[in-house]
Amino acid sequence: MAEAYIVEALRTAGGKRGGALKDWHPADMGAAVLDALVEKSGIDPALVEDVIVGCVSQVGEQSFHIGRNMVMASRLPDSVPAVSIDRQCGSSQQSLHFAAQAVMSGTQEVVIAAGVESMTRVPMGTPVFLPLQAGIGTGPWPQSIKDRYGVSEFSQFTGAETIAKNYGFTREQLDEYALGSHRKAAEATEAGAFDSEIVPLAILDAEGNETFHARDEGIRFDASLEGLGSLKTLKPDGVITAGNASQICDGASGLLVVSERALKDHGLKPLARIDNLTVTAGDPVIMLMEPIPATRRALERSGRSIGDIDLYEVNEAFAPVPMAWLREIGGDPERLNVNGGAIALGHPLGASGAKLMATLVHALHARGKRFGLQTMCEGGGIANVTIIEAL
């Protein structure tokens, strides 16, 4: 089978809700990443055969085909098509899978996989709440689904609490994990570990002067167990808080994926080779456990063990998710989310998949490591797993 390669892997720095990126229209934010991918690679933008964009809340400023709108807002020519997809939190990881599959099948040579989410300008849950507030419909789940699974709604918060209870994770353990995420992210930022992957975006500072946003805004450099412990739990008898869950975030990300032929024809240098693409689905009620069986399948299909994987990015939607994954898979904690995760850096929903891959690719190169694995839990009990080989 033909191979697929990642040539460039970029992202914006995360913006807090109502923070540095609040004035950026999501189409413009995504377009900035598209332009940077093309500019940094040096490829003729007219050679891009498709742009696959992940976005969860495709309403308001992210409606009417955000993928195509990103292309129109960019310097790519009108001849470049696009498609917008939604696999919940894994949307832009699935963008990468679709891009790689297109290249591996031989139907396309140069494809961009991207993602975008402005959680400030299009708040989480807006596609559900807007129709209900207008008195239209009954929501995304018909009674047949509710009856089948014995629930009135599907909640990731409930899933996270269930995982913590099932594994016996205490509030203190979750907060300790969250503190580690902030400390790793702070250390990585101070060391310039993210510099090669971040696309700076022009913003106005508090005095109205133009500057550039190039530093993840959600990192708590002074995070402490005392501070995390002071936060209220989301449920009176629960263990999940805003401090040990992922942060609401604005951001965009992108990956330039090409064939071996395109590497040779256009003199491109690959950062990584796609080694395995896996997606599975399971329990939609707890829903956050699926990265575990998905990882097992990916490792089996690739003929590798977790010991062969040098670094892993497991999305920190909630602290119990990577903690349970680590215990079940038997991974090395020192290889997990080495530059921090979504608890510190933010989780811009549709952009997170390609964002994590950008971080993974650059972390492998910085450490001189070979294999990396990325996975994340997704709404509905789905999980994507991607294994790459750094080149």
TrEMBL record:
Family stated for the protein in its record = Belongs to the thiolase-like superfamily. Thiolase family.
Q: What name goes with this protein?
A: Acetyl-CoA C-acetyltransferase
Ribonucleoprotein recorded as keyword: no
Q: Which UniProt keywords apply?
A: Acyltransferase, Transferase
**Lineage summary:** Bacteria, Pseudomonadati, Pseudomonadota, Alphaproteobacteria, Sphingomonadales
Q: Thiolase N-terminal domain location, by residue?
A: 5-260
Tell me the PROSITE patterns matching this sequence: THIOLASE_2
Q: CDD domains from the xrefs?
A: thiolase (cd00751)
